[in-house]
Amino acid sequence: MSNFHLDIVTPDNLFFSDKVEMVIVRGIDGDLAVLKGRAPITTPLRIGKVRVFQEGKERVAAISDGYVSVQDDKVTIVTESAEWPDDIDIERAKSAKERAEKRLKDRRDNIDIHRAELALHRAINRIEVSQIKKFD
Fold it and tell me: 75-105: per-residue pLDDT in tens?
C-alpha cells in the first residue's frame, strides 16, 4: 500500500507526524477514509477517533473537533486536543462525564446545553479510546 504524510496538530504540539497508509476520521457527514492520491478536500471534524494505519497496524487516538485538510500526498489534522489511549486519564474522563450528565439532567436556566453536550461527547470518546490497545 502507498504511503502519504500525516500531521496531527494541536495548539500545544505536533501530536503526530509520520508516513501512513491510511487515516480515518469522523467528519461532520460521517467517517472519512483517506488513502494516497485522494482528491483534495478540507472539511470540519467532529469529536471522535482518528484511526491511523501504519505497516498494516492500526493506532487510535481521541480527538476533539477541528478540521482535516488533504492536499497532494499530505494530510493535516488540526484539532483542539488529541490523546493516545495510554495518555488518557480515565478517572478524569469519568468525572467529566458525570459532571456533564448532571448538568444536562438539572437543566438550570443558566446552563449552556450545547456546551454540556459537547463535554459529554468528549468524555465518552476519551473513555472509549482509553480502552483501545495501541500497537508497538
Answer: 999 999 999 999 999 999 999 999 999 888 8
Q: Identify which of 1, 2, 6, 4 has the alpha carbon closest to the alpha carbon of residue 17.
A: 6
- Phi and psi based region of residue 71 (left: phi greater than 0; alpha: psi -120 to 50; beta: remaining): beta
Model confidence at 109: pLDDT above 70: no
Q: Which domains are present in the chain?
A: 4-83 (2.60.15.10), 89-130 (1.20.5.440)
Phi-psi region of 40 (alpha: psi -120 to 50; beta: other; left: phi over 0): beta
* SS3 per-residue string spanning the chain: CCCEEEEEECCCCEEEEEEECEEEEEECCEEEEEECCCCCEEEEECCEEEEEEECCEEEEEEECCEEEEEECCEEEEEECCEECHHHCCHHHHHHHHHHHHHHHHHCCCCCCHHHHHHHHHHHHHHHHHHCCCCCC
Q: Are 43 and 30 in contact (CB under 8 A)?
A: no
Residue 20 pLDDT: 97
